[in-house]
UniProtKB/TrEMBL annotation:
The lineage of its organism: Bacteria, Pseudomonadati, Bacteroidota, Cytophagia, Cytophagales. InterPro entries: KilA/APSES_HTH, KilA_N. It comes from the Bacteria. It holds the Pfam family KilA-N. This is KilA-N domain-containing protein.
């Protein structure tokens, strides 16, 4: 498992990892500020009320949850000989709300809902501070994502000006009126849309009548980055007199190549 991000609660560093598009908070780290240490996790998960909560959470959020096996566990919970670990819980019920990982950055991790439940079991005060710090982390991530998205959107708009200038200088006949010119600009913009998104702005709008903005407003950071590059390339190829059909093929090949190169880059993953 990756190193993850850190939040600090009551002078304790707690790891938050992102896996399968879900945030998991380290229960192991949460125990460090308590005298009993990670043994508290075992006591918590054998508690009948805890198991009732976990069973309900999995039933709502996990279509693969083994509910018949959970009923067996729930029936046994509370008797003196009952033993349960997080690993056993996951194996027996196919639960996905918690993870057990080995290695340097390993430990027991839980979905934020479950982590907050564990934190309340540890201490109501601890739970309040954990929720606040986790919310602060997510707000910072969203702010950084929005800033980066806006940066690339601005870059795309700057390159769009370069692109339209090339169209004006090398494609537009001098006698066209404004409406006719706009048609040519839109046509060239759709060359880029086809190369990158595989559809025109009109086609996207017909497929997404309720969406806000346009096809480019809904683009990912990676797509916006590639779009800025495509606008520069197309502007140069327009100046070179390359016909539009040939430019479209070349732009599409470039878009595919660039996306393959940047998708999954750690630098971009940090912004997600």
């Amino acid at each position: 498992m990756a190193k993850g991000r850190k939040i600090q609660v009551n002078q304790t560093d707690i790891t938050v990892v992102h896996k399968n598009n879900v945030d998991y908070i380290s229960l192991t780290d949460m125990c460090k500020g308590f005298r009993e240490g990670s043994g508290l996790i075992g006591k918590w998960i054998t508690n009948k009320n805890t198991l009732e909560y976990l069973g309900m959470w999995e039933r709502i959020n996990n279509p693969d949850f083994n509910y018949p096996e959970f009923e067996v566990i729930e029936k046994d919970a509370g008797i003196n000989r009952f033993i349960m670990s997080v690993g056993q819980w996951i194996e027996r019920t196919k639960a996905n709300g918690m993870l057990v990982q080995s290695g340097r950055y390993g430990g027991t991790f839980a979905h934020k809902d479950i982590a907050f439940h564990f934190a309340m079991w540890l201490s109501p005060e601890f739970q309040i501070y954990l929720v606040k710090e986790f919310q602060r982390l997510k707000e910072e991530e969203n702010d950084r994502l929005n800033l980066t998205w806006n940066l690339h959107r601005t870059l795309s708009k700057v390159n769009y000006r370069i692109h339209t200038d090339a169209i004006k200088e090398h494609i537009l006949p001098k006698t066209l009126n404004k409406e006719q010119a706009n048609l040519i600009y839109a046509n060239e913009a759709d060359v880029l849309n086809m190369a990158l998104f595989g559809k025109t702005a009109k086609q996207w709008r017909e497929e997404n009548p309720d969406a806000e903005g346009n096809i480019r407003d809904q683009a990912s950071i990676e797509q916006l980055l590639v779009l800025a590059n495509l606008e520069s390339l197309n502007a140069e190829w327009i100046k070179m007199g390359i016909p539009q059909p040939e430019r479209l093929l070349k732009l599409n090949q470039s878009a595919i190549s660039q996306l393959k190169s940047i998708l999954g880059l750690p630098q971009l993953k940090k912004l997600m």
